[in-house]
Input
Amino acid sequence: MSSNAVRIIKLIARKLGQLVVVLFCVTVFTFLLVRLLPGEPEDLLVPVSTDTADPEQRAIIEDRKEQIRADLDLDDPLPQQYIEWISGFVTGDLGNEYTVSSTVPVSDAVGDALPPSLQLILYSQIIALLVAIPVGVIAAYRQGGILDKIANAGAFGALSLPNFAIGLLLAYWIGVRSALPFGPQGYTPFSDDPTEHFQQMMLPAFSLALGQIAVYMRLLRSDMIQTLQEDFILMAKSKGISNARVLWRHALRPSSLTLITVAGLSVGTLIGGTVVIEVIFGIPGMGELIASSIIGREFVTLQSCVAIVAIGFVVINALLDVLYTILDPRIRNA
Amino acid sequence: MPDAPTAPSSEPAVLMLEDDSLSDEAPSNEAGSGIGVGGWIAAGWLIFVVAVALLAPFLPVDSPTARGAGPRLPLFTEGHVLGTDSSQRDVLSRLVFGARSSLTVGAGAVAVGFVVGGTLGLIAGFRRGRIDTFLSSLFDILLAFPALVLALSLAVFLKPPSASATAGAEEIDTSGGLTSIQILVLALGIVAIPLLARITRSTTLSWAQREFVLAARAQGARSGRLMVREVLPNVLPAMFSIALLSIAIAIIAEGALSLLGVGVEAPNPSWGNMITENRNVRSSPLNALFSPIVALFVTVMALNYLGDALRKKFDVRDSAL
Output
């Protein structure tokens, strides 16, 4: 066992420790979201007044609130409530959404909402990398050239345009005005109709991808410019290897480390982005669920969704952090 | 430690702040002390927008909430240059008053973030040691939340129960409630705290070790005085550029939160809720949808451009760990 391996294990242990602390804070925060809102939780969940004229109806509502109080163990001390909630949460029991007459498990809604969101993130990452890599490489190779200038100006503009504005512009210019078959609102599962699935997902995915393209392109370009000044590139060129081969085979790989990390970390940013894009394109994902639960004051759903998104974000970031440290010896040995 | 990328820095803000390695060829054309022609154009636009927002009630525009009679007016109608929206309200007037809300939210949130985050960052960077370790881990935990989701939760949390929901249901006191703009300022301000604190901290770190600080200390100055009189004046100009970039992000965030249902409350306009109200591209009047998008885009671009130019000038780095 080399000292390096020991160091990596120690590092992972430390990161795991941090992860646990952060996860604890994140879940406590989301747990308190409903409990600390002004007013009693059962009144928030069933926002119906008890002072109706009809005594029968009043009895029903009071019964219902009583039942919710018992269901959520609201009379227990807060730490105990937290433990109850979190132990349900990790086993997939996300609680129930209460209305006056119904009790719907939140996990059903979340289970339906997760796939569209994850697909959206995946597609936008693929588009972003497919566009950013060639543009970044060529911009670095012809540094100061026309394509480089256009790409830089475009990247600056793209970073100033919020993704929801991109989404609305695309929905109008491509979805409404053009004859292209993209843009129908809504969501069709891939297994139902792949063609329609991609027609619907293309614009939202591209809206999310545009900002990422700008970030990735600029990163790859600056790393690539540095790599191209290295001796081994000169060496490769002097051996008579074609420019294209030097560029794509010799220079791209050592230049792409930062890109890979940032692409990974961006998944977290994209989680936030999907929330807004889904609302615009009417995709029934996590974002839509969050937005509709805010409007409908469905606090239990909101709480679970926020917790899931935040946990996903934290875990992905921690994983990438460790992965990056293992991949890049400079940091590992620091 | 080499300039290792800081760990959980996936927010766009940080990305923009970190990739200054790409300015490798920039110093040559920014070598002077100025901010360039583009910088002045950007500054001019921002001054214009701020002036319009401040003077909104005195400008010769209609009330942003007054509903006109008759049909909806298209672009370039006399008296309504940008036309009217689907409720026959003047779009130009809503844009002008919307600038008021959007800029208040942007500047207010960054002010909250800076007063709290900047102070904490200054203390952490100057004191070092255990206070620094404690504050830095606190910032890291806050940064672990996806920014938009954190802002959203805070906005929901701070929002007083709406009238319909509380009608009668127990006596919930809404009189002390915050307005939607105050809520957004607080929510986005809290989200900005750890980010701004971290940047202030790293800038402070590099200034606190300079000779003039040591000289002042040798003359008997106390820590508080050193922080406020020696370090702070040097940290502030650099922080100004970060403030501009942050205001841009906060203005965008207001738009995003609007779309999620917790933006500036109607009927008062903000650029975000104007976009939200007209977001149905098939049926909404396009002048009412595109006007706020263009205003938002140009303003954010101006803030980004000026912020970037100033950042290069003052050479702010987030990676000085």
